[in-house]
Amino acid sequence: MIEIKKYKLDNGLRLIVHQDKTTPLAAVNVLYDVGAKDEDENKTGFAHLFEHLMFGGSKNIPSYDAPLQNVGGDNNAWTSNDLTNYYLTLPASNIETGLWLESDRMLELNFSQESLDIQKKVVVEEFKQRYLNQPYGDVPLLLKPLAYKKHPYKWPTIGADVKHIEDATLEEVKSFFYAHYAPNNAVISITGNVEPDDVFEKVKKWFGDIPSRDVKVRNLPVEPKQTEMRELTVERDVPTDVLQMVFHMCSRTDDEYYIIDLLSDVLSNGTSSRLIQRLVMQKKLFTDLHAYISGDVEQGLFTFAGHVSEGVNIKDAEKAIWKEIEEIKNNLVDAYELQKVKNKVESSLTFSEINFLNKAMTLGQFELLGKAEDINEEVDKYRMVTAEQIQECAQKILIETNCSKLYYLSKDKKAKNVKTK
Amino acid sequence: MLRRNNVPSFDLPSGLNILEQKKFNLDNGIPVHFVDGGTQDVAKIDLIFPAGIVQSSKALVASFTNNLLQEGTVYMSAFEVAEKIDFYGAYLGQSTNYHHGQVTLYSLSKYLPDVLPVIEEIIKKPAFAQHEFDVYLSKRRQDFLVDSEKVKTLAHRKSQEILFGTEHPYGRIANLSSFDQIHLEDVKAFHQSQYVSNECTIVVAGLPGEGIKDLLNKHFGGHDWGVKEYNEDPLPNPKPSKENEHLVEKENAMQSALRIVRKGVTKSHPDYLPLMILNTLFGGYFGSRLMMNLREEKGLTYGISSYMQSFLKEGVFGISTEVVAEKRPLAVQEIFKEMDKLRTELVDGEELDRVKNFMLGDLMRNLDGPFALSEAFRGLLGFDLDFSFFSKFEEIIKNISPQEILSLANKYLIKDDFYVVIAGK
What percent of chain B has pLDDT over 70? Predict the structure, then answer.
C-alpha cells in the first residue's frame, strides 16, 4: 500500500507526494503527456530529440546538469510512444534545487541553433548505436509499420528515418514546446524523505506562476481493423533466425489489460511457463522465446519473439507457437497454474515498490492514465481474473487475421555453421 | 518576486545512512552478513562460493555450473524446481565473475520457508542431467554468436586479452571452440569441488522475519555438504601485449567500438579511492570532460565513459565509446588531449566541487536501502575490507585537492601506458 497526498495548482499542474522516511534522498519525477504518437508522420523522432534539448539550458539557467550535480543530484529521462518522463534524485534537503531546475525548463527553454545541431548529431549516433549497429536492432523499425497502417504507433520512438531527425528546425522545436510542455499537461510526483505539505508549498512557489498553455488537442488517426495476416521476410547478417509475431490488443486502461497480461504470463513468464518448458526445453525449437504485452496507452500489441534453434525451420517453429495458442484457446488454464501467475504478479509489484524513484515514476503514470490511487488496486485487479476470461481473450486476440509476423532470417546461417566445425 | 536566476540555497550532501549490519555464523561456521531494514516484507539472499572463472581450468565451466544448478535436482525435475520457484513468486539470480559464483534468491519473506528447501536442493544436490546441459549449451552458443556481432563486446574481449594474456584467467576469453570442449563431467566436478559449505558466504538483506537464522541453519547449517581441504593456486603473472594498437575487424560495422585501456589498481590499493575521483571528473559522469567534449561539444557519439574495474588481484582503467569509423581518429585524439589537459592544468575549484558533490550524492544513492547495501558489501568480498571503506571514501572525496588530482593524472593518464582497441572499422 503506497500512501499518497495529492494537490493541484491553479495552472492545472498535478502533484503527487509519497513520503518514505527510510531514505535520506528524494526523487522528483516530471511526466509530460506527450510522446512519439503526437508527432507528424513526416517528422518522426521529434519527441525524443526534444527530450535531449531539455538538457540544453532553460530561460534563466544556462546549464541544467551542473547545478544539480552541485547539490549531489543525478538525473535522466526517457521518451516512449506515449510519454516523456524526466526524473532526478538528490539528498532530500536539497529538493528545492530540483524544483527550481524543473520549473525553469517548464517555463521556457533556451532555444539555440547550436544546441539543436549538436543534439541532432548525438541522436543520429544513438540511432546507429541502438538500432542499426546491433544484431536484430532494426526489428522495431520493421515490425511497427507492419502492424500499424494508420496509427502513429507505426513508427518507433527513435523515429522512422534518420533523415527526419537531421531535418528538424528550430522553429519546429519552439512550436513543439508550446504545444506540449505546459503545467496543465504534466504531472509531478515526489517521493522520499519529504513532508507532503512542505513540498506542496515549494512546488507552488516554483511552478505556480507558469501560465497554463493551449495544449494541442490530441486527435490520433484510428487504426482500421486488421482483416488478414501480414507477413514480412528479411535477410540480415545475423547468426540465427528470429521469429516475431504480434497481435493487436486493448489499451493499458482497459479492464481486459489485466486478463491479457496474465495470458502472456501463463505462456511465458518464468522458467516453468508453457513456451519455455515445451518449445525451448522439451522440443528445442527455440533457444529463447517470450510472449509479452506492450502496456501502451492506446491499443497495443501482444508479441511473441523467439530465437529459432540451429537446424530448425522457422516455419516449423512458428507452427509450434500456433499449437500452443490453440491449446490455450481450447482448454481452461488450471487453478494451480493461474494461482502461480497471480502470485508472481503480486511479488513483482511488491518488489517494484521498494525503490523510491520507481514509486515516483509509477505514481506519475497512474495519475496521468487515471488517478494515482489506482496503484493500490493493481493486485486486486489481477486477482479477479478468471480462467474463462483468459480463454475468451485468447480466442479473441490470438487469431490469424489479427497477426503480423516477421521472419528475420540469417543470411549466412549455413555458411556460419560450416565455419565453426 | 521569485529570483529564478539565483541558485536556491542547498546543503552539502553528507552523512551516509548505513543500515544496521548483523553478523552471525551458522552451526557449521558459514558466515552470514545480514543487512536489516527496508519498507517491504521481502528478502534477498546471496549464497556465494569460490566458483568463478579463476577457479575453473576451462572457459565456460564456471558459468555453466552456476546456471545449471537450477535445472533439476536429484529429487525434483527441472520443471518442478522452476514451478516451485515461480509459484511462490520468487526469482533466482545467478552470476559468476572472476572469483565467485553466486546464487541469489529474491522472495517475499512469507514464502521463505517454502522456497529455501528448493534452494538447498539445487545447491547441494543438483541433477546436472545431459538433456538440460545440451539445451543450455545450444542456447549459450547462440547467445555467443549474437554477442560476437556486437562491436562493443568484441572490443571488450580483446582488451581483456591484451591486458592479461590468454594464459591468465582474466584474459582467457571463450571462443566458439570452447563450446565443443566443455562437457557435463567438467560441470559436475566443478560443483563438487567449489560449492562447498566451508567456503560459502551468505548475505541476507531486507526484512526476512524473525526466524531467518533458524531457517538458514536448517537448510545450510549442517555438516552434510561438501567440506573439503581448500587451497587456491596463486594466479600467474599477466602477460600483456607488446603492441599498443589492436584492431578487431568487422566488415559491415556502422560504428566502431573504441576501448582505450591500461592496467589499473584494485580496491586494496591506496590510490583506488582518489583515482575514482579523477575517473569521475575525466569520464565517470554525465558532466565529465569526455562527455562534454565528445558528445556535448562535438556530437561524435551517443555516449562515452571512463571506468575502473577492480578484480581481486588486478585492476583496469579504461575508456569506452562507440563512434562512426570516419570520426574514430578524431575521437582518439580528443581522448588523449583530455588526458594531457588533466596532467598539465590544475582543475578549477568550481569543477572539482561539482564532481565532489555529485559523488557524495552518488555514494548516498549507492548505499541507500538494504539491497543496495548488500550489493556494496558484495563488492568488498575477498578484499579484506569492510564498510569503513565507504566512510573513508566520503572523507577522501571531501578533502582531495586540485594538486592531488594533477599528480594522480601524471601517474595514471600517460598515453604510452594505454592500449587502443578498435572493433569495427
Answer: 100
Of A65, A120, A347, Cβ closest to residue B286: A65
Task: Please give the single-letter amino acid code of residue B265.
Answer: V
For residue A69, the number of C-alpha atoms closer than 13 Å in the C-beta half-sphere is: 21
Strand partners, A86: A30, A77
Domain that holds residue B385: 245-424
**What pLDDT is stored for residue A419 in this prediction?**
37
pLDDT tens-digit readout, B150-203: 999 999 999 999 999 999 999 999 999 999 999 999 999 999 999 999 999 999
Does residue B232 belong to any structural domain of this protein? no
Q: Does B260 lie in the same domain as B143?
A: no
pLDDT at B18: 85
Contact B75, A330 (CB under 8 A): no
Residues B154 and B255 in one domain: no
Instruction: Count Cβ atoms below 10 Å from residue B43 Cβ, excluding itself.
Output: 25
DSSP labels, B306-354: EEEEE-SS-EEEEEEEEEEGGGHHHHHHHHHHHHHHHHHSPPPHHHHHH
Asked if B131 and B273 sit in the same domain, the reply is: no
**B137 occurs within a structural domain:** yes
Residue B357's domain is classified under what CATH number? Answer: 3.30.830.10
B213 and B257 both lie in a single domain: no
Nearest by CB: B287 against A65, A344, A345: A65
Q: Do B318 and B406 have their domain in common?
A: yes
Mean pLDDT by groups of 10 residues along chain A of 421 residues:
96 98 96 97 94 93 95 96 98 97 96 92 92 94 97 96 94 93 98 98 98 95 97 95 98 97 97 96 96 96 97 97 98 97 96 94 97 96 98 98 98 52 29
Rounded distance between C-alpha atoms, residue B130 and residue B147, angstroms = 25
**3-class state of residue B383 by DSSP:** coil
| Cα B67 to Cα B122: distance, rounded to the nearest angstrom | 11
* Chain A residues lying within 8 Å of B320, measured CB to CB: none
- Interface probe for A, chosen from B18, B35, B39, B92 (most Cβ of A below 10 Å), is B39
Q: What is the DSSP string of A152-214?
A: GGGS-TT-S-HHHHHT--HHHHHHHHHHH-SGGGEEEEEEES--HHHHHHHHHHHHTTSPP--
Q: CB B302 to CB A117 under 8 A?
A: no
Q: Which residue of B has its CA nearest to A192?
A: B368
- Specify the fold of A5-207: Cytochrome Bc1 Complex; Chain A, domain 1 (3.30.830)
CATH 3.30.830.10 segments of chain A: 5-207, 230-420
Residue B170 within a domain: yes
Q: Are residues B145 and B262 in the same domain?
A: no
Question: Does one domain contain both B147 and B285?
Answer: no
Q: Of B205, B220, B235, which one is at a domain's C-terminal end? A: B220
Q: What is the pLDDT of residue B150?
A: 94
Question: Which of A130, A307, A347 to mutate against chain B (most B CBs within 10 Å)?
Answer: A347
Asked whether the beta carbons of residue A125 and residue B176 sit closer than 8 angstroms, the reply is no
Q: Which residues of B touch A132 (CB under 8 A)?
A: 254
Q: Is A230-420 a domain of CATH 3.30.830.10?
A: yes
Residues B201 and B341 in one domain: no
The domain total for chain B is 2
Q: Looking at the complex, does the CB of residue A203 fall below 8 Å from at least one CB of chain B?
A: no
A130, A135, A340 ranked by CB distance to B86: nearest: A340
pLDDT, tens only, B118-164:
999 999 999 999 999 999 999 999 999 999 999 999 999 999 999 99
pLDDT at position A413, please?
61
Q: Alpha helices of B125-150 — where are they, by DSSP H?
A: 130-147
Write out residues 215-274 of A within 8 Å (CB-CB) of B. Answer: 237-240, 269-273
Question: For residue A340, what are the CA distances in angstroms to A333, A395, B71, B240?
Answer: 11, 22, 19, 52
Is there a contact between A309 and B138 if contact means CB atoms under 8 Å apart?
yes
Domain contains B327: yes
